[in-house]
Write a structure and sequence with these properties.
- The structure holds two protein chains of two kinds.
- Chain A is mostly helical.
- Chain A is built from eight helices and four strands; from the N terminus they run E-E-H-H-H-H-E-H-H-H-H-E.
- Chain A is 62% helix and 4% strand.
- By secondary structure, chain B is α+β, with helices and mostly antiparallel strands.
- Helices cover 46% and strands 22% of the residues of chain B.
- Chain B contains five helices and seven strands.
- In chain B, strand 2 (133-140) and strand 3 form a beta hairpin.
- Chain B starts with a helix and ends with a helix.
- Classes of the chains: A mainly alpha, B alpha+beta.
- Chains A and B meet through strand 1, helix 1, helix 2, helix 3 and strand 3 of A and helix 1, helix 2, helix 3, strand 2 and strand 7 of B.
Chain lengths: 184, 212
Amino acid sequence: MRPVLFGIVFASGEEREKFEHIYTQYKNLLLHKTYEILRDYTLAEDAASEAFLRIYKNLHKVDDTDSNRSIAFYVTIAKNAALTLRGTEHKKQTEEYEDDIADTRDMELEVLSGISSHAIYRLVDALSEELRSVFLLKFAYDMPHRAIGEALGISENNVTVRLHRAKKKLAQMLAKEGYVCESK
Amino acid sequence: MKANNQNELFRQMASQYVEQAGETLRREKEQLDREQPHILTPRMDETVLGHSSPPRQNRRSLWATLAACILLALLMPGIVLWLDLNQGGMTGSPSQAASSDTAAAPAEYAVIPLSFTLPDNFRVEEVEQDREKSIYYLDDTMKDPVVMTLEYGSAPDTAGLVSISTRGGDLWGMTYADYSIVLFEKDGVIHTITCQNDINTLVDIGRAAFAV
């Protein structure tokens, strides 16, 4: 009988070891992140537990368990599990971009000058957690919409809507800050 | 082409972001581990790892697996023969091998074309293929961008949605806190349309699909 966790049968002992490594190494960090959102230790544990289940289901996406890329993946999943549990929208102070920007439908994303890595971080970070997580799972981790929905605990339709919003908002921010031009 | 450029830029931005964010989180983790190295989480450990098999059980499992493998190996010739007889001698035939190869190969999906004319205020901004689904990003001059997903099928999942009367076809829809959704089936394709605000935007598209 193969090892079982969350009622899931592990494909191999290696897979289980990989998961246990992630759990022991990043339990504190994920708890810390979920607590930051929920401000309740019991709820934070529930959210972190849920996050580990979702991480397990996407274990095939994790090549190097300790790479920066993987750590960002764990935290993205954990934050969303916490937000789902909290059940309310987690808004960052980026709403200034919401309404006051012109329609960008004809905007060609043609980068005028190299965007510094600092600017990239700031722009992506300015997205709300809900939009950023969908954006990252799509573009950084190349996940299909259905898998993103499962990882974040939202419907596939909601993934599509959020992704569209994230792209629009980023495009608007890039235009507002002069990184892209409108070619038309 | 424009959409491809945009997605490539987003891909680069997302990859750079996760590298930087990951580095920041790594430092945060190291600090946490230094400051609070022994946080006890018995409830979470039980939830997440509670069903872990101890080493002795693992060894027992290994023996059980080994025994099962040996038994399977002994029975396999009989099973193969039985299958061969029951499937008219197809086992190992070239045609079956070819079909197995086909099944193993990653499926390639073509974009499902739109079978109707969109209302005048919409234009297709971008089309993306996500596995078996074709996703049309529609730009709306009324500023309520729409995403329409097309997927082959004849039985849309209408659970939780309400029927919307229209001429010529059946629409189902609902407005949620985050978005509105309308779906319908036409010519063997399930259309799922979503937008941020007004469900009527979506109903207009559904009606256009069934317009004579």
